[in-house]
Amino acid sequence: MAYEFPVASLSQNELKQIKSMEEKLRDKTGQEIVLIAYENKHKHEKG
C-alpha cells in the first residue's frame, strides 16, 4: 500500500473557512495554529 498526500485544491471560500478556524484555535489556545489541507490518495500496490 502506498499513500500520497498532495495539497488539496480548495476554493477561495474553503480557504477562508480554514483561515477562520485557525484564528478561532489561536484565540482559544494562545498558540500559533496552522492548518494544512491534503488529499488522501490511497493506492494499492500489487505484489
Tell me what you see in this structure.
By secondary structure, the chain is α+β, with helices and mostly antiparallel strands. Helix content is 38%, strand content 13%. It is built from one helix and two strands, in the order E-H-E. It has a two-stranded antiparallel sheet with strand order 1-2. The longest helix is centred in the middle third of the chain and has 18 residues, at 12-29. The chain starts with a strand and ends with a strand. The model has no long low-confidence stretch (mean pLDDT 90).
Give me the secondary-structure topology.
Layout lengths: L1 E3 L7 H18 L11 E3 L4
Antiparallel strand pairs: 1-2
Short synopsis of the structure:
38% of the residues lie in helices and 13% in strands. The protein has one helix at 12-29; strands spanning 2-4, 41-43.
Average of per-residue pLDDT values: 90
Proportion in helices: 25-40%
Q: Choose one word for the global shape.
A: elongated
**How many helical elements?**
1
- Distance between the amino and carboxyl termini: 10 Å
Proportion of beta-strand residues: 5-15%
Rg for CA atoms? 15 Å
Please give the order of strands in the largest beta sheet. 1-2
Q: Name the structural class.
A: alpha+beta
Catalogue the unreliable spans. none
User: N-to-C SSE series?
Assistant: EHE
Number of strands: 2
Largest sheet: 2 strands, antiparallel
Number of domain modules: 1
